[in-house]
Amino acid sequence: MLLTFVAARGGDGHGRVAGALFKTLAALVFLAPSAVARAEGPAPEVVVSRPLAKTIPRWDEYTGRFEAIKQVEVRARVSGALEKINFTDGQFVKVGDVLFVIDQRPYQIAVDSARAELTRAQAQAVASTRDYARAQEMTQGRTITARDVDQRKASNDIAKAQVLSAEAALRNAELNLEWTQVRAPIAGRVSDRRVDTGNLVQGGQADATLLTTIVTLDPIHFIFDASEADYIRYARSAERQKETSREFKNRVSVRLADETEWTRSGVMDFMDNQLNRRSGTIRGRAVFDNKDYFLTPGTFGRLRLFGGDVSALLIPDAAVVSDQTSKTVLVVSDDNKVIAKSVSLGPIHNGLRVIQSGLDAKDRIVIGGLANPMVRSGATVQPKEGEIKEAPVAVSDR
Length: 398
Hints:
Helix content is 30%, strand content 34%. The chain has four helices and 21 strands. The strands form three sheets. It has a six-stranded antiparallel barrel with strand order 2-11-14-13-12-15. Strands 3-10-8-5 form a four-stranded antiparallel β-sheet, with no helix packed on it. The protein is elongated. The relative contact order is 0.18. The model is unreliable at 1-11 and 24-39 (pLDDT under 50).
């Protein structure tokens, strides 16, 4: 219609222009298919390999925290004014070190008074014993009645009881005097002072004043919770091997938040006797040496526990494609079509990623060429056989 319109408007000059335009358009139409073909080009090349099937050790990981094996709240046993503090906040103390001194004068007076009362009771007991002895002699001459003898015997028994009571009162007074020196019940690192000198502190069994706390650091516990499914799996394995963590000290490793290697080794030393009904977990405990006192109670870490040997499929971690919802692996079918398979990932083993589910041992995994944007699900590719190899075993992974 355009050519007809131009020809109608312009005569010979316009006709020549229209003919040239027509020839150009026809050439473009005939050349378009070949240009598209050249733009598409050959199918992209990719490197494929089947997953590496291997029996590997299963390491279960749990998050937990370190706790002191022993922790003591140091409280006053007697009341009084705090006179001395014999430690620096945060220092290490030994068993029996005097940490605080409470005003001893009232308790020293109580000891002196109790000792005097004991002396008086002992003197009365001696006199009563002599009276009773004379009464027994006088009964032979019938110069005293049996009733008097019985009364003197009772007085003698009362005097002896008073001696025992006075001795107990003296020991109690001496104990209170001893408690004015608040000593470290365990060896470890002491916290800061909670009360300064000059303050009155309350002693006794209830509402006693908290003075400070002490924790042990070497060795140190690591506490974690395992799921019910993991516990059942461990129990089944222990039943087959005739050993459990309660009798056999299984080796474990732990690393801190900023560590990448499992260099801290310990052993399991406790498994709780029941599962938590609310969380469905069971509490486990491992013990670690802490000679340098680096590990501090309350620090979080990640524990690795041997969970038995399992059969697994291993692929390079770079072969895993991530999106917002899942992890996928590109697989090449028999007709060289790319298929995306959703997978469940496990840990890294010898530099390769463990695939827990989603792949078959016969699948041809795309391990090279993923950077090409044409390599995507549904595309046709030219596969080239490759090989998946393990990295050298690190000492910390053994």
